[in-house]
Amino acid sequence: MRNTHILALAFAAATVGLAGNLSAQSALKDVSRVTEGLIAVGMAVELSDKCGDLSPRTLRGITFLRSLQNHARDLGFSQSQIDDFVDNKDEKRRLEAIARARLADLGVVEGQETTYCTVGRTQISQGTQVGRLLR
User: What start and end residues bound the annotated signal peptide (predicted)?
Assistant: First the structure.
């Protein structure tokens, strides 16, 4: 939980400066690079929260979130669109559910710390985006 707040604040801070003129037909939730990046961050946070042997690479996480911000900026999202996305509780729950489902698919069992640690170490050794956000 402690890391969730740090990364959530970092994402909010990273997206505050977005501006542009993307078509009204597009939505930030439809930008795969952004949503997949946020899912990876969510997975890393969950692993570090539930495994005492893992910790987040906070600076790397902030840098990664800024790269998502830059991508969204390059696509021309408006401040209003960003605010709506960041503040949307349903979207946050949807992305968290996807992150937890992916962790379960990788072998995480709710309430069993060793499974979080095993999956986290595997992600680190494989050099995945999730693993790069952990130490």
Answer: 1-19
